Amino acid sequence: MATLNWKTPNGNSGNVDLDKIVMTEGNQTISGIKTFNNLIKFDTVGEIGYRGTMHTDPTKTCKQLYLTTGDFNEWSDAGAKMALHCYDENDEYSDGIIDIAASDGTNISELYIGRNGVDWNSIGISIDSIGSNYIRYNNNIQIVWDSLGCPDLPCEVTYPMPFVEYPRIGICNGEAHFTKWYYTGCTAIRSRGSYTSAYIRYIAIGKWK
Amino acid sequence: MPILHVKTPNGVQSDVDLDKIVMTEGNQTISGIKTFNYKIHFSNFGEIGRMLTRHDGDTKRLHQLYFSTTKLENWNSDGGAKITLHAYDSDYSDREDGGFSILAATDTEKSDLAGYPDGRLNWCGESIYIVSCNTSSTCGHIRYGNGIQICWGGGGLFDVPRDDSYDRPFISAPGIGMNNGELDLGSSSNTGFHVYVVTSGITKTYYTYIAIGRWK
């Protein structure tokens, strides 16, 4: 083990184990944990860092760990960034969002991934759930469908999942249609003629939240 | 800038800038900004780094800041995952465009999510985003980036026969399902359709419809 006794021009002095120092230029291997208080920069391209910002809710702060092609404090520049948000309420982490954005300096398109789904430019694009005869999207739209066979008319119909407003309906058979609408279902009635039953397949679109 | 005049036990002498040395073993804390010229490599697994490549016949330079489970130069052959942030530079000083890519791969297959400033969001090259949607009105629509459009409407008490129009036009007449057997569909176009009466004597009635087609 080579020990270096050093003394700087301002009079400070100390000892350094030469086996444990390297210059910061060139390749290096760090065997322990390296802690950065603020920022890692990549020459001319971008940086990795964290920052804390106030949230619209003054009781919360938003901590962001980010990777960006530019200076994050002036991120309106063209480029791209990825930030991991963590909201802090009374020093307890309460919520997290992944925010990935691309910019040409004027237009910014942004992908948010959170606990309630995925948004692209503020429009929900992910599927909340898929089940038997229904799809619920995170943009609040729900599509349900069913084949009712050839029931006697009138016939009570229950949607596979309820809506929060009256849905719009397409039905494949002009011999019957839906009436007496509810958020949870409707009644199929005879449209014309004297028949007492009809084959019915339908699709309904509306809001589920 | 403190300079350390070094003389080791074996007789080697040099000057060391104390601002440019770090300990290589044990836990360390860097309190200032640390600048890496190239990359941070994690032993045996993954790295964070930058790449500069030529683009568009050498007229542009592509800056890439990436986060990868493997060395980026070996990416074409390795499975794993990476996130890349792009910035194009046309004259080496002004960045004019940005984008991101998130990629998952086995040794033989790759799937990636790519986003661009103009609103494109692609999964394996195919648009997956919703261009626009109107979910709050009685006459609504969803336009998907892949060209599919769904429109719906009706729901009121209407004088019939009548002409109805979609919330957004299609590129050609769509397929329509309507909920009222007293009525039927007449002429149809990319912007709407005509409703006529099948059951004689009907002059007012309720109906709804759903139309699916392409908007581009």
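qc> Chain A touches chain B through 88 residues (CB under 8 Å).
qc> done
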